[in-house]
Each structure stands twice: as structure tokens, then as C-alpha cells.
Design a protein that fits this description.
Length: 185
């Protein structure tokens, strides 16, 4: 743990914040630009998370931005990293959290199924349903594969599928046991 704290102190001048009501395209664009700029110089990059998530596509984009960064990206959760923010966190080279941080990993199909009441007509909903379900299934397969790879066998496919379907909050202690994060600071 001392190494993690030293790493955080070493990058305090190279910090990016992902905070606020939602991880949206504006946040994704800002953070991507900041990582790009920080990659022009040498040194680790600290990304501080406190986000309830947002659009999964923005989380996936940040996952790729962090994963492909020339410089090491340290993700530090100070509060919450839910949904899309959790996906983005998985792209960081080192993933840390405070003891009181929490995470929500969920099945994105559940969020879409709940939106039927917001469409203007049943016909409109049915028109896009099949295409959207196929996309969501592929997204679930991608997410399961990603988490299984990142956790290096600390969680089984069956346990992960159950966790995704439960849509429950995980604390930092459980996150470290499951291999979602590397350390608690």
C-alpha cells in the first residue's frame, strides 16, 4: 500500500477528475484531450473517479484512452465508480480506491428494458428492439470478457453473470477480493 500512496503523491500535478452527475460525451472528450496532452510529457497520470456512470460507449472510449496511454494511468476511486465509470476504470494500468469507495457493475440490458415506458409508441419500440437487443448481448459478452481478463481468474464467469444481473453495490473490500481493483489506500 505504501507504493500506491507514493505513486499518488508523485502525480498530484498530473491529475484528471471524472466527477459529477454523469459520465457523458463532454466529460469523455475533455478527459481524452487531457490524457492526450499529458502524454506529450513524461510521468504517470492520476485519474480520480467519483461518478455514477453514464453512457457505456463513453466508458468504453475512456477505457481505450487509458489502456493505450503511453504513460501509466493510475485510477483512483474517491467515492463511486458505477456503470460506465467502472468500465473506464478498468482501462487504467493501476486501479485503487479509498476504503469507503463503492462500485456498481450491472447488466446494461436491464437499463434498456426499463426505458420502454419513455418511447413514444410501442411500434417505435418494437422497430428498434431486435437490433438493440443484439447490440446489448454483444456488449454484455464484451464486458464479461473484459472483466474476466482484468481480474485474472479471481471471479468465475458464473459469479460475474450473477453479479451483473443483481445490479448491486460492491464495496472496496469486495472489489479487491474480486480483482476489480489493485489496492485500497
Amino acid at each position: 500500500m505504501a507504493n500506491h500512496i507514493e505513486a499518488i503523491h508523485a502525480v498530484t500535478d498530473r491529475r484528471i477528475l471524472i466527477q459529477g452527475p454523469k459520465l457523458d460525451s463532454a466529460t469523455m472528450e475533455r478527459v481524452s484531450r487531457e490524457v492526450f496532452e499529458l502524454n506529450k510529457t513524461t510521468g504517470d497520470i492520476l485519474v480520480v473517479f467519483d461518478s455514477p456512470g453514464g453512457r457505456h460507449i463513453d466508458g468504453k472510449t475512456l477505457f481505450d484512452v487509458f489502456r493505450t496511454s503511453r504513460e501509466k494511468v493510475i485510477g483512483m476511486v474517491q467515492g463511486i465508480a458505477d456503470s460506465a465509470a467502472f468500465i473506464a476504470l478498468l482501462g487504467c494500468h493501476v486501479k485503487l480506491a479509498t476504503h469507503y469507495s463503492t462500485f456498481v457493475v450491472h447488466n446494461s440490458e436491464m437499463t434498456y428494458e426499463g426505458r420502454i415506458k419513455y418511447t413514444s409508441s410501442a411500434k417505435e419500440y418494437l422497430k428498434t428492439f431486435k437490433r438493440r437487443v443484439n447490440l446489448l448481448r454483444r456488449e454484455r459478452i464484451w464486458l464479461i470478457s473484459l472483466i474476466l481478463k482484468k481480474t485474472k481468474g479471481k471471479i468465475s464467469r458464473r459469479e460475474l453473470s450473477k453479479l451483473l444481473d443483481e445490479d448491486r453495490r460492491i464495496d472496496a473490500d469486495e472489489a479487491i477480493k474480486l480483482g476489480f481493483i489493485d489496492g485500497i489506500v
